[in-house]
Every structure is written in C-alpha cells, then in structure tokens.
Design goal:
The chain crosses the membrane at residues 9-31, 37-58. Keywords: Membrane, Transmembrane, Transmembrane helix. There is one protein chain. The protein has seven helices and seven strands. By secondary structure, it is an alpha+beta fold. The protein folds into two domains: 2-83; 96-209, Pleckstrin-homology domain (PH domain)/Phosphotyrosine-binding domain (PTB) (PH-domain like, Roll), CATH 2.30.29. A seven-stranded antiparallel sheet has the order 4-3-2-1-7-6-5. Strand 1 and strand 2 form a beta hairpin. The longest helix is centred in the first third of the chain and has 47 residues, at 37-83. The protein is rod-shaped, with a radius of gyration of 35 Å.
C-alpha cells in the first residue's frame, strides 16, 4: 500500500513539474527580448534545477514501476509453484504432510510407468500427474499395503483381476504399494511400483489402521 502511495505521489509530482517546465520554457521564449544578462543566468540556473528535479521524479517513478513488475512476477512464480506437482508450495497448498514420487502401475486413468506424485493429507490421498489430480477420501480406503509380486502370485488377491495380471506372471521381484478402496459393493485397487523406495512408501500403510471405523462383523 505504501509503495502504491509513493508511486502515485511521484507520478503527480512528475506531471506537475513537467507542466511547469513547459510553461517556464515557453515564458523564456516569450520574454527573451526583455531579459538582461543577470536574468539569463537566473533563468538558466532555475531551468537546470527543474530539469534535474523532473529527471529525479521520473527515475523514481520508473523504479517503482519496475519494483511493481518484479513483485507481480514473483507472485506469478509463487502461484505457478502452487500448481507444480511435488513442489514445496504445492505440498503446502494441499495441506499434505507426505509427498512421494512413485511409478504408477494401475488403477488411475493415466499411463502405466508414469511418475505420479502421491500426497498424504489428513482426510484424503491425492494422486497427481501433470495437470491431472485424483483424490481418494480416507473413508473409502479399505486397506493400504506393500506386497511383492511373489505374494500376489501366491494368491494374496483372489479372483481374476486384470490390474494384477502382469504382477502374477512377472519373473521380476518387485514391491507394490496398493491402495484398496470401496466403490459401492466393489473393491478397486490403485497400485504403484515402490521397489526403489519401499521404506519411504511404507508411511502410507498405517493410514488405514489409525482411522476410526465401525466394526465389520461377518457371520461364517
């Protein structure tokens, strides 16, 4: 606010001095014939003073304009950082306490193997790939675990699910972070390859265990 006020004062001062300078120079030409040598000296000194003052005000005005442009550029950069997946500004904007870059395997409408940022928030898990953002509410999560493809192959997942087809037949030993969530009467899965950072990814596993939920009683 102070910067804007000072800029406006310099603008007004520059305009007023500029107008006075034009009037003063015009008066010199009109009254030139009546001037004595001493008058010319006084007029010259005053003219130099006005020019210096006008230059000072214009310089200050341009300086404030540049500062405002710089300030706007900084603000734009901050706003862009808030939209940049994985950035500290983005993490703060989403209110997340954990953010990991993981390779997507299945479950989201994005390509397999693409780097995806996974954020842990107090009430949801957020998955972000470029401009695409997906939110999974904590209340919908039924399980979070890290399993190997060997465990999956041995029947950790029962049923004939396409999303695990590659893991069941793979000969490569790998770790997968698996989010299981309810969607109506169906359980869906979002999986990520965490072979290189399974220890860091394990921080997501406890998110389901600490939620307060109603006990599910199954009669056998």
């Amino acid at each position: 606010m102070k910067m804007v006020l000072k800029r406006n004062l310099y603008l007004i001062g520059s305009v007023l001095v500029g107008l006075y300078l034009v009037v003063f120079v015009s008066g010199i030409f009109i009254n030139m014939n009546s001037y004595q040598a001493v008058d010319y000296a006084i007029v010259l000194v005053f003219l130099v003073f006005l020019v210096i003052l006008e230059s000072f005000l214009i310089k200050k005005l341009l300086s404030y304009n540049n500062n405002q442009s710089l300030h706007r550029e900084i603000e734009l950069r901050r706003e862009r950082k808030k939209l940049t997946p994985g950035s500290n500004a983005r993490i703060k904007e989403l209110g997340a306490d954990v953010c990991l870059k993981l390779k997507h395997v299945s479950g989201l409408p994005i390509n397999t193997g693409t780097n995806t940022f996974v954020y842990r928030c107090s009430d949801k898990i957020i998955f972000e790939r470029n401009e695409h953002t997906f939110e999974l509410e904590i209340d919908k999560i039924t399980d979070v675990s890290i399993k190997t493809n060997v465990q999956i192959h041995k029947g950790w997942v029962q049923g004939n699910r396409d999303i695990f087809a590659r893991e069941k037949t793979s000969k490569t030993y790998s770790y997968l972070l698996i989010f299981a969530y309810g969607n109506g009467h169906e359980v869906n899965y979002i999986t990520f390859d965490v072979t290189k950072n399974s220890n860091k990814a394990s921080i997501f596993v406890g998110i389901y265990d600490y939620q307060s939920r109603e006990r599910n009683i199954v009669k056998l």
